[in-house]
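Last lecture ended with a question: if I hand you only a sequence, what can you say about the shape of the protein? Today we answer it with a concrete record. The protein is Winged helix DNA-binding domain-containing protein. Below, first the input exactly as provided, then the predicted structure, then a couple of comments.
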Amino acid sequence: METLTDRAIGRATLARQLLLERSGLGVPAAVEHLAGLQAQTVHSWYVGLWSRLRDLDADATGALLTGRTLVRVVAMRGTIHLLTARDARWLRPLTQVVHDRMVRGAFGRKVAGLDRTAVEAATRELLAGGPLPLAELRRGLAARFPGADPGPLAETARAWVPVVQAPPRGVWGRSGGVLHATLDDWAGPPVAAPVDDLVRRYLAAFGPASVRDIQQWCGLTRLAEVVDRLRPGLVTFRDPRGVELVDLPGAPRPGPDVPAPVRFLYDFDNLLLSHADRRRVVGDADYAAQGFDGTTNEQPSSVLVDGAVAATWRILRDGPAATLRVRPFRRLTAAERAAVQDEGAALLAFATPDARPDVLINP
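The predicted structure:
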């Protein structure tokens, strides 16, 4: 069995993630190719698409949310993801067991006595008239289940009934509170699909990968038996530590020496959240040294240099000025600094076109 270096594994994943060369795919096709983008932050995921696609039009992308081609829905790992409506209809049901597990872990006995069928029916009835804020959903459910704790009740209802966050929240250049609608009403009824399809979609976007990697991405467990079932149609490798990796036979594996351009990743970029072993792209980067020690929900935005995390970044606004601050983990070469400077200037032109731009790279 062939052993792949971490660098070769990383290059393969970057190719799947459209990070070796910007793609000409349309936004819906790209979102499906990427198996969705984590989108719990309202707008930062637009940077994820900008880094992967040529000539991204943020306004047109936002219109896809309004037009219901794209949806923001809690799916993989129990986190909000940007999916096409078509994908959400089959991916969300496959992850229901994840949401059920999270409800048990978060609320336990507080919701143990609830009649699930009744809660689901009441939730659908309350949302049938159109999207509602969480506070109104909570009040409506509390009136129907007076003996239940209103907070855990509403959170449980949102887990048991697939709901989307309706626009304008998430639309580029707009703001708004969280409005919930059922996925069925917003995008159409669920579509049955085997978990095999989910594994193949993951490998197409993130492979080659171990069983633990796949489980890290989606939150499901016991996927070894699914991989074993698919094994005749897969190829296998080993990583430098001897862990078996599986992959799709025709998926790109360009090799370790293919150039990887500078790319800016947004805070919750799935490239950094979808593997149990992140060495393929994180390498030796020490996020804790910059204060990101995992004790809060703050997730750093990262910069890829030569295919690996080399810095974090953030945009600071001060009146008419926008400064992109880059904090490297290591000393960058002159050529690398120039490439970061150029890509950073392009990012500012996209994200803050009305501002006076400046790119500041810390020593």
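Comments.
1. DSSP finds 14 helices and 13 strands in the chain.
2. The chain has two domains: 1-281, 301-361.
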